[in-house]
């Protein structure tokens, strides 16, 4: 289940409204979602690298700088896409929350070349996602009071 759809379901079934009555802050909730996606993504990357090495003779880099590049690209990508998914959750109607995913939740930025400006692009997506989250996130659905 994707982040946006999961949050929409939590909102529609009243889970977020119940959470609002606890000491949890929206920031803690967002950080929890980001950590959840980051852990799942890291597991997927490790699995894909293992399959690549074992089945396709993938040669992993030996240069620590290349691993560092992978780490910061992965971290910024996870953060930006998760924030955009959280923001997209506000635009998912109840009937869509149970079925199809919102287009924004699976948003991907296709970068033809990884250059120095990649960090700025991903950083901008993080800022855009955060601003959208702050503007659109609600603890309860539109019909709830």
Describe what you observe in this structure:
With 145 residues, the protein is mainly alpha-helical. The protein has one domain (3-136). The protein contains 6 helices and no strands. It has helices at residues 3-12, 15-20, 26-56, 64-88, 94-97, 117-136. α1 (3-12) packs parallel to α4 (64-88). The two termini are 27 Å apart.
Write a compact overview of the structure shown.
This protein has 6 helices and no strands. It is an all-alpha fold and 145 residues long.
Q: Any low-confidence stretches, pLDDT <50, length ≥5?
A: 94-98, 100-114
- Global mean pLDDT: 77
Q: Helix and strand string, N-terminal first?
A: HHHHHH
Total helical segments: 6
Roughly what percent helix?
A: 55-70%
Question: Keywords, please?
Answer:
mainly alpha, single chain, 6 helices
What's the arrangement of secondary structure elements?
Layout: H1 3-12, H2 15-20, H3 26-56, H4 64-88, H5 94-97, H6 117-136
